[in-house]
Amino acid sequence: MENADELPFKVGDLAESKSFQHGYRGAWFRCKIAEIRKRKEHLEYALEYYDFPDEKLKWTKPYQVQIWVRQREKNKELMIRPHYPPIFNAKQVPDVSSIREATVVFDDAWKIGDLVDWWTTGCYWSGTIVQILSRD
């Protein structure tokens, strides 16, 4: 599972790293790949968190197991993902010639069952829409 070909990151790439830390379990933090190494046959990334500049570099394996999960349920979870692309409503898309990276454009309203990420408390939280309170 831990194969450099599966995660095509290189030093300097922007990414997001998942946390298992209490209070932030499942949250994704914006980071930059500072270094890459192979240690004891496992790939590791040194991550620089750019929303938290005082944090030291943290070495992270791309796949990890939550330590509180029961032994029979242990599944490795992806801990590093590419950074999220900019998102625009179809009515607000900038001039195409000014877009320099992959961009998400949507022209539909959110629906129950849609998967979402939202930014709050310095990180992204993932979820599924279960109820729509208003169309605003």
UniProtKB/TrEMBL annotation:
Any Pfam family matching the protein: Agenet
Species this chain originates from: Genlisea aurea
Name used for this protein in its record: Agenet-like domain-containing protein
PANTHER family in the cross-refs: AGENET DOMAIN-CONTAINING PROTEIN
InterPro entries, per database record: Agenet-like_dom
Superkingdom of this protein's organism: Eukaryota
Residues of the Agenet-like domain: 12-85
